Amino acid sequence: MLKLENITKDYKSGDSVVHALKGVSIEFRENEFVSILGQSGCGKTTLLNIIGGLDRYTSGNLIINGKSTKKFKDKDWDAYRNYSVGFVFQNYNLISHQTILSNVELALTLSGVSKKERRARAIEALKKVGLEEQIHKKPNQLSGGQMQRVAIARAIVNNPDIILADEPTRSIR
Prior knowledge:
Shape: globular
Structural class: alpha+beta
Mean pLDDT: 93
């Protein structure tokens, strides 16, 4: 389903180059649950961003369902992110002036889903994470754990093939 072959990621920092990833090769099977562990600064978030199409690798190959991404254009990455990947970010990335229902619906807006279906699917996702009673609240009216569940609802609302969670238990430590 998803395969990384000798992935490297380099960042320029002034006159030097930071090697964030150095030849990572790994293969993920369908329905597999994987945790990536390591010390702070070792490249875990960089790896997730590359898998999720948020960042481009310097060299190597990311293969999605048997197809190389080496020649992906921006529209290919957009389609991949919109239909295949759900993200649960470290700091939730919720829009503070929107309700949690609107925050979850936003994930469907880019996918071209009708307003009526967006609302129904967002409510269903919020029910799945136990927040159906909170749908009209804004993020600042929720606890950290509740905001994390909104982020999870947003990640699952499109029924993605892949869910990427960056430090998913951070708020409940």
